[in-house]
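Q: what sequence does this backbone want?
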């Protein structure tokens, strides 16, 4: 058990000043690590050291920041096994997912932003006014307050920290108090890579005190938050009081649209994988299968059969397909969603319960398929954030689009068809920040991730993310060298 402390402030690991807290293994309920949480004084200290460190870091040549971030990528790659095991210990996700997705994705993100640090785009210098040369400068915003969730603690921390520091900002990151351990390891790796102390800080605490103090701190120029839409609205309100820039990646209720001409085998496999990844604790996970009526029964049967073969078990066993949910409390919330759906007339085809036996001590929940789900049901509208897929039929292409967009969310979606024209129409008409065709879930560092509607705004990953963490400054230089400019006649009379 690591007792070194759950804070990283000014280049040192330390304990917080708040309440004692434990990080639990969701698979067993056992304590993984323990320490004191941060309080508002820790937040103030972390922001103060970030304010002090940022001007030097932001003033360095992009190539110097890039070199340090390349070293960080090498550090993270060198500790891949430790990162994967630590991630699994605090989240319960299968080691296969941590080691094949979370950690390699984070290393790749780091390498990408190391390169992107050297390429801040802007309009070319030009004479848009004949007497002046105009140029664009992209400058760091200053200190960024970032709040990352518990479902992908390492990757989401990286999505917050990497573009911010690549652009020359300093960061105070608040990971979830449930899962702070890999964010702390990343901060330590940043120090070894030569990123100056104070540029990356980690304060672990609860949202109502530590999170709200970070968001509302007067020296924090920008806030980046990933989490629920409810909390996101609170973050936005607090940030608005200080006129801060806000970046939000919120919930999702992704439609998975299967047309009559879809490859049924591919759609069935895609639906199960996309619904169950990370035990369904993924804002982009397939949540609502919207299936053409002609394929409905075959799709339901295929998904149920495939779900039946998914292996729940010890997350460290490489044969395990699905781990536990993050906590017993979250399992109760997921189960309540399914129970309400039953009460409203939906039919649970597969799963819908917590397993017993050897898994009883963990917060496990079976892969669950629910049919006879109609718009208006709670399970159609609300984000479940668990291994639950609902199925609803449609008859026409227009019906499919209407159903897909019948949600306040707009983070991700997919369409399954062999018709190129149909695919293009669907990608244009579905309201989401990402639409996959004949796949669901893959992400790459070079392309943006972010939503519309109640799923928030702003982008993670890609060069678009880097731009989020910069301000655009217009610099205009006179070319004439004369004291009395031609436009001065709008102020001075000719005989003045």
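A:
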């Amino acid at each position: 058990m690591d007792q070194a402390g759950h804070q990283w402030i000014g280049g040192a690991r330390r304990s917080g000043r708040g309440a004692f807290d434990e990080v639990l293994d969701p698979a067993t309920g056992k304590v993984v690590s323990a320490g004191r949480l941060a309080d508002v004084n820790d937040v103030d200290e972390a922001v103060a050291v970030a304010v002090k460190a940022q001007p030097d870091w932001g003033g360095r040549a992009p190539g110097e920041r890039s070199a340090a971030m390349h070293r960080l990528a090498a550090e993270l790659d060198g500790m891949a096994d430790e990162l994967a095991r630590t991630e699994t210990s605090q989240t319960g996700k299968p080691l296969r997912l941590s080691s094949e997705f979370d950690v390699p994705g984070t290393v790749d993100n780091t390498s990408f932003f190391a390169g992107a640090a050297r390429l801040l785009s802007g309009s070319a210098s030009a004479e848009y006014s004949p007497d002046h040369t105009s140029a664009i400068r992209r400058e760091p915003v200053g200190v960024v307050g970032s709040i990352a969730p518990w479902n992908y603690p390492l990757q989401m921390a990286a999505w917050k920290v990497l573009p911010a520091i690549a652009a020359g900002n300093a960061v105070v990151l608040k990971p979830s108090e449930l899962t702070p351990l890999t964010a702390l390891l990343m901060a330590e790796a940043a120090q070894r890579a030569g990123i100056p102390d104070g540029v990356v800080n980690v304060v672990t605490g609860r949202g109502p005190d530590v999170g709200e103090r970070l968001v509302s701190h007067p020296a924090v120029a920008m806030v980046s938050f990933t989490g629920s839409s409810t909390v996101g609205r609170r973050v936005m309100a607090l940030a608005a009081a200080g006129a801060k820039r806000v970046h939000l990646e919120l919930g999702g209720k992704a439609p998975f649209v299967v047309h009559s001409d879809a490859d049924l085998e591919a759609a069935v496999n895609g639906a199960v994988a996309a619904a169950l990844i990370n035990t369904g604790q993924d804002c982009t996970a397939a949540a609502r299968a919207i299936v053409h009526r002609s394929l409905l029964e075959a799709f339901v049967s295929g998904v149920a059969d495939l779900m039946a073969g998914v292996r729940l078990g010890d997350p460290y066993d490489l044969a395990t397909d699905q781990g536990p949910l993050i906590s017993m409390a979250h399992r109760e919330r997921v189960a309540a969603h399914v129970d309400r759906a039953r009460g409203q007339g939906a039919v649970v085809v597969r799963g819908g319960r917590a397993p017993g036996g050897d898994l009883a001590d963990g917060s496990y929940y079976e892969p669950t398929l629910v049919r006879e789900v109609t718009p208006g049901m709670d399970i159609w509208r609300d984000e479940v954030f668990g291994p639950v897929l609902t199925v609803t039929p449609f008859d026409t292409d227009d019906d499919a689009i209407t159903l897909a967009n019948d949600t306040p969310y707009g983070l991700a979606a997919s369409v399954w068809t062999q018709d190129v024209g149909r695919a293009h129409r669907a990608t244009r008409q579905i309201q989401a920040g990402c639409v996959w065709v004949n796949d669901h879930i893959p992400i790459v560092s070079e392309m943006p991730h972010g939503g519309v509607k109640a799923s928030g705004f702003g982008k993670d990953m890609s060069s678009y993310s880097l731009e989020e963490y910069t301000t655009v400054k217009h610099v205009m230089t006179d070319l004439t060298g004369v004291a009395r400019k031609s436009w001065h006649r709008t102020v001075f009379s000719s005989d003045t």
